[in-house]
Design a protein that fits this description.
It contains 5 helices and 10 strands; from the N terminus they run H-H-E-E-E-E-E-E-H-H-E-E-E-E-H. It is α/β, with parallel strands linked by helices and about 240 residues long. The protein folds into 2 domains: about 30 residues; about 180 residues, Aromatic compound dioxygenase (Protocatechuate 3,4-Dioxygenase, subunit A, Sandwich), CATH 2.60.130. Bound molecules: fe (ii) ion.
């Protein structure tokens, strides 16, 4: 219903990096140097609640269902950025999916209702968007509730030509439970771990909506469906 055409800007960290590269290379940046600068978004388990029945409305505004009587309950959060390859080139025409818990911690899944809770019928629970020529995507959704055993998180998948290239999870900076979350902690590489923890800031001074910018960086290899369910193999604990 809402396509969120508002563009996103290159994050400050990358602009700073580019500026320093320009200074140190006399203005010449090769794609190899740039490639090393980008951190691949780490894979994560799909978890048990990828929708087993998809909603009719699957657009990128999860706060409103077509024909719904009211918006979804919860704090509105917007997430957007660009889909990039390791060379920093935007990836056009890829599908990004988002699925997540509602304000009660419930998913659109036949087993996804938390004990003693009910799913918010106004919350779409799953949405998708196709990236544009500059790799941009954007979602409008709500803050998911924390449910037993996990910190607050969003589930994302990226598909190219119908193949699942990445399954991952996004986290909210400053959540106390982040320190204890087994799936977040299992990301051994610190740069990769930090790349999936984003700060959500007020969208504007007169709005309670929160906004986070998140660029997703994918490689060339499609996912193995078995690993997607189990998650990546365990490695050493993060420092
Ligand atoms: Fe989850």
């Amino acid at each position: 219903m809402n396509t969120f055409t508002q563009p996103f800007h290159i994050p400050q960290s990358r602009r700073t990096l580019l500026r320093s590269l320009l200074l140190t290379t006399g203005g010449i940046i090769t794609s190899d140097i740039y490639a090393e600068a980008l951190t691949l978004t780490p894979r994560a388990t799909e978890g048990p609640y990828y929708p087993d029945h998809l909603p009719l409305d699957q657009d990128n505004d999860l706060t409103q269902i077509i024909g719904g009587k009211a918006p979804a309950s919860g704090i509105v959060m917007e997430i957007g950025g660009r889909l990039l390859n390791v060379d920093g080139k935007p990836i056009n025409d890829a599908v990004i999916e988002l699925w997540q818990a509602d304000i009660n911690g419930c998913y659109i899944h036949s087993q996804g209702t938390q004990r003693g809770k009910e799913r918010d019928p106004q919350f779409q629970g799953f949405g998708k968007i196709t990236t544009n020529a500059t790799g941009e995507y954007r979602f409008r959704t709500i803050q998911p509730a924390i449910y037993t055993g996990r910190t607050r998180h969003y589930h994302f998948a990226v598909l190219q030509n119908g193949k699942r290239m990445l399954t991952t999870q996004l986290y909210v900076a400053g959540e106390p439970q982040n320190e204890k979350d087994g799936i977040l902690r299992s990301i051994c590489d610190e740069a990769q771990r930090l790349s999936v923890i984003r700060e959500f800031k007020p969208k504007s001074t007169d709005s309670q909506d929160l906004l986070a910018t998140w660029d997703i960086v994918i490689g060339m290899t499609p996912e193995d469906p078995e690993q997607r369910r189990k998650g990546p193999p365990p490695g050493p604990r993060p420092r």
